[in-house]
Predict the structure.
Amino acid sequence: MSKKKSHKYNVGDIVTFKFLTGDILTGKITECTNKDDGTPDYKIRVEDSRGFTIYPCMTDSRIIKRDKSALSIVNAIQKEQKKQEKSQGNKVIRESDLDKAINSQKDFLNGSLK
């Protein structure tokens, strides 16, 4: 058994690859394995208008380039979430308004209506 080579790409990376028929496709790596000879092997999921297709047994030699890494995708999602939180932060209720609301609810529960 030969020594296993390390993978160049990670699960979640978006890559462009050349399929056996010559088609150039872009998809997301869903699984990283090794062949019997230790060659890195990837399973890539390609989405299209009809659903998706999984291309197994794609090696480093078939992958042309990495379009986005999994880490950059996560960072972009987190950046978007922070941006949404900031825009919602402008609508924060002032503490004094919150205290007034709580006190009015306590008065209502105690039976004293205004």
Observations:
- Residues 14-68 form a domain with the OB fold (Dihydrolipoamide Acetyltransferase, E2P) fold (CATH 2.40.50).
- The chain is about 30% helix and 35% strand.
